[in-house]
Amino acid sequence: MPKHTAAVTDEADGPVPAVSVCVPAYQGAKYIGATVESVLAQTFTDFELVVLDNGSTDGTSAVVSSFDDPRIRLERRDETVPISHNWNRAVRLCRAPLVKLLCADDVLRPRALELQVAALRTHEDAAMAAARADMLDPADRILFRNRFLGGLVGVLNGDDVVRTIVRHGGNPIGPPVSVTFRRADFEAVGGFDPDEEFLGDLLLWSRLLEHGRLVGLRESLGGFRIHPASLSGAAGRRQFRAQRAFTAALAGDKRWAVRRRDVLAGGIGAYGALARRHALFVFSRLRHRIAAPSPTTGRNGTPLDGARPTSGTTGGVRAAGDRPDTGPATPVLHDADSGDIAPR
Asked: Are 243 and 199 in contact (CB under 8 A)?
């Protein structure tokens, strides 16, 4: 891998790229190399990659600095701040009108930017484009393929998407690795809510729907890493309660045409998501115990054994110690497709 010392700057010169990929990172040295490589391997090349290191002490910045590519911009904080603050700052460091936020242990498939940028260019009234994703374990083995966007493939208006969220009882859109959004709409809704402990990404998606439609792509374009240690415990119970409260508030919001039958279905869906989460916990733990660590993906996300190159999340949850951008409070921001949680 070529070596160089990455410049740490507040601004970048040169033409504004079509899309920015931003990676907020905290203690991410173990996985961030694969994350960066998956971005550099994109078929769509008019991008910048902005990495914001949230005061890591494990060499995260050194890993990023080892890449010799002018599209990479490394920013560092001297002190660690809460996750939502770091995520918002990472997006605001971006220069492009389109933004993809990528967690520091997730990966993109090679055509992710190509297909999502094209979708947003084609549908100028869309606020975001989302794609399916695969779920990876800590050793890069694929756990589940093609997760998210059940009932959300195509171009959908806000009412249709909100009704699906309510019926689902979780997050059917997906985590950040699944989504590319417009920077202007992000700013219009105020970014990630600093007061939201558990559902930061889902809350942002729902607010973005106030500004445009959702384009749902059926391709699996991202990989979401699941750490089994985070799939159980008090945080999961707190998130379940937070998810129920969020769904009830969304269903009661008069801006959306949510029907009574959607609310009733959501009550069942929430407990179904909880059951799937526990099943995922059992499966992940068993897989972790019986399988020797043998990564299936190479440097740029290319499978070594014929498996699909990236992993996604359909309800994955990540261990606080392994999740790169947990920050000091280790909040859980995301309820995935199966109703699982993902501390970041």
From this structure: yes
